[in-house]
Amino acid sequence: MKINTLEIKGRKFLMTAEFHPIITLSGKKILRYQAVAQFYNGEDFLIPAEQTGVLLEETAVNRKVTDFIFEVICHVLKMKETMTVSFILSPQLINDIDYLTQLIERCQHNDIAPQRIEIEVSNHLTYSQFISKLPALKQAREYGFMVSLGKFGCGNEHAERLQLFAFNTIKIDRSLVDGIARHPAKLSTLHRFLDSVIPAGTDVICEGVDSTADLALLNRYNAGGIQGYTFSRPLTFKQLQLLEGF
C-alpha cells in the first residue's frame, strides 16, 4: 500500500492508512470499514491520535490527507466490488461544494458507485454550524454518497438536527459506550438515545466496544453494529487483503 510523505510546519511525517472494521453485533458479518490516516514521525514512531488533531488544523493539510485517504478508498473498492468504506470529512472541507464535486468526479473516473462510500461528519459542530453545512450535506447525498453523523453522545445532542437531515448512520461516541456495564447512568443515556432520540430506521453504530460485558448489554438493546476491539483492532492494508481475499 502506498505511503505518502507529508510536511507540516517544516516537519516531515509518513502517512499510511488503516481500516477499522464495523461489525454486526453478532460478529458474524462486517458491514463496512472506516479508512483512517495514520501518521509516523521521522524515526518511524506512531503519532498518537490526540496529537494528530493538532497537525490537521490547517485546511490545506486536511485536503492533502483526505485526498490520500480517498485515493486509498478508490483503490480498495476497485479490488473488491462487495465492500463499502467510510471516511471522516473535516468541518473545513464539508462546506466546500467544489471539493465534493472533485470527489464524485474521482468516483466516476474510477468507475466506483458513490453509494459504496460513506462520508462521516462530526457531531462536534454547534447547531448553527450544522445549519450552515446543510446545503453541502444535501449535495453529498444528491451525488449518491451515504452520509453519517459521528461522535453522537459527546455533548451536542440537538435532536432537531436529526429531523433536518436524514443521516444514513448515527455513530454513538465511545465516551458514552465504553463502560456501560459498570456505569448505569451511561447505559440509561444510551438507551434513551436508541429508544427516543435517534429516528427510526437509521442505522446505529456504537464505537469503543472493547469489553464482552458492554457487548452483552448492547445485544440486549439491539443497537445495530459496533466498532471496537472486542472483535478486531484496526487492520493494515495487507491484513485487509488477507481477510477479504483480494
Automatic annotation (TrEMBL):
Protein name as annotated: Signal protein
Start and end residues of each EAL domain: 1-246
Pfam families for the chain: EAL
